[in-house]
Amino acid sequence: MIVMKFGGTSVADADRVRRVAELVAERRDRRPVVVVSALSGVTDRLLEAASLARAGRREALDPVFSDLARRHRWALAGSIDDSGRKHDLALEIDARLDDLRQLLRAIRVLGETTARALDTVLAFGELMSSRILAAALADRDVEACWLDPREVLATDRRFGAAEPDLERTAELATSRLAPMAARGAVAVLGGFVGATPDGITTTLGRGGSDTSAAVLGAVLGAEEIQIWTDVDGLMTADPRIVAAARPLDRVSFAEAAELAYYGAKVLHPASIEPAVRRGIPVRVLNTLRPASPGTLVLREVAAGAPAVASVASRSGLLAVRVSSPRLRVDPTFLLDVATTCARCGATPDVTASSEIGALVALRNDEAGRAAAVALAQHGPTEVREAMAV
Ligand code: ASP
Ligand code: MG
Question: For residue 43, which ligand has an atom nearest its CA?
């Protein structure tokens, strides 16, 4: 079997949902388990709704809620033809929206949100998008089963950044998903959402649907995990900067991790680590151009692969030059520089050292700026802004 994960832009509206249902239907002989993100932008809107509710700003909250309701009603109305099915789903979505409305009201009355309550709010996006996709599949005569991810993805209790428990998820997934796949039914579930052992809703952190897909693929021993997004895969360079950039056929996990570290946004490799560790290939594919082969992320660099996979860059950095007061090789100098950066919570993007000093490139954020100031204790510093790596 395979895992197919669709990101928010892949299910942005009714047309896209139809397209995704089509893609899944065409691959049903590969026995897909489908993991889906919230409709694009919905998680941000839910966060906004929760913070408006907490601030008691009802006038501002109402339009945000209406917008969420409208987007889901349009998505379902436009992606399902069968009128009975459309009607049933509309009732279901309205019931979920009503739950959300009550939850937001409770937050407004209390004037506070806990991380735990916030996870319950954020989970609505994936819980609704997955129901819409499951119905759109059924509409194409695919036997599709909607599953509540809280009954499959077991996590710890770190609300907002929960860690999947692979052992428990393996048990749950095998008992729930394997029989479906065996009888040819396509399981559809929302990503990003899980539950604690006592059934409290958790989320895996932003972008967490990739993690859901990787964890499920890993525990089910999938043949391949497909991450469907809105680009052709990982590229040789940022296509917004380099017009001649082209998709890579294959990258190693380490290369993908380096690219993400330097700003490539397609895939956060940490999220697919459970799959890569078990040697399950992860393929990044484009929902809008399904015929293109995408990029395969493998555990090791493929034999004969080019020495340089890709060029990435990050701008807006601070370059801090620290001169060594002793003007001779001092093995502890670089260690002091690194320790000061670490103490400020800053990780240098690049560090260079010479006999007379060190140069570190830091993010221009609170930690980086604090480190730039603190580094002066080791010697005279020169700070330059707007630098790039
Ligand atoms: N919907 C969640 C987010 O926007 C999770 C995901 O899309 O992977 O962060
Ligand atoms: Mg997303």
Answer: 1
pLDDT at 138 over 80: yes
Q: Is the CB of 8 under 6 A from ligand 1?
A: yes
Q: For residues 251-273, b (16+ Cβ closer than 10 Å) or e, as one string?
A: bbbebbbbbbebebebbbbebbb
Compute the distance between CA of residue 336 and CA of residue 275 in angstroms, rounded to an integer.
38
* Cα distances (angstroms) measured from residue 175 to each of 196, 288, 345: 18, 34, 43
Ligand 1 atom closest to 210 (CA): 8
The verdict on the CB of residue 37 being under 6 Å from ligand 1 is: yes
CA-nearest of 313, 306, 305, 218 to 3 is 218
Q: How far apart are CA 124 and CA 42, in angstroms?
A: 9
CB contact at 8 A, 318 and 384: yes
Residue type, 19: R
43 lines ligand 1 (CB under 6 A): yes
| Ligand 1 geometric centre to CA of 205 (Å) | 8
**Taking ligand 2, which is a single-atom ion, which protein residues have CB atoms under 5 Å away?**
8, 37
Q: Which range has the top average pLDDT, 180-189, 267-276, 321-330, 356-365?
A: 356-365
Q: Is 125 in the pocket of ligand 1 (CB under 6 A)?
A: yes
Q: Report the nearest atom of ligand 1 relative to the CA of 206.
A: 9
Dist. CA 168 → ligand 2 center (Å): 25
Q: What is the pLDDT of residue 45?
A: 98
What type of residue is 190? G
Strands in the chain per DSSP E: 2-6, 32-36, 144-147, 186-190, 193-195, 201-203, 224-229, 250-252, 282-286, 295-298, 317-323, 350-354, 357-363, 381-387
For ligand 1, atom 5: residue with the closest CA: 207
Binding site membership of 363 for ligand 1 (Cβ less than 6 Å): no
| pLDDT tens string 217-268 | 999 999 999 999 988 889 999 888 899 999 999 988 888 888 887 777 777 7
Burial of 183 (0-12, 13-18, 19+ CB in 10 A): exposed
pLDDT for the residue numbered 61: 96
Q: What is the pLDDT of residues 327-384, one digit of tens each?
A: 776 778 999 999 999 999 999 989 998 888 999 999 999 999 999 999 999 999 999 9
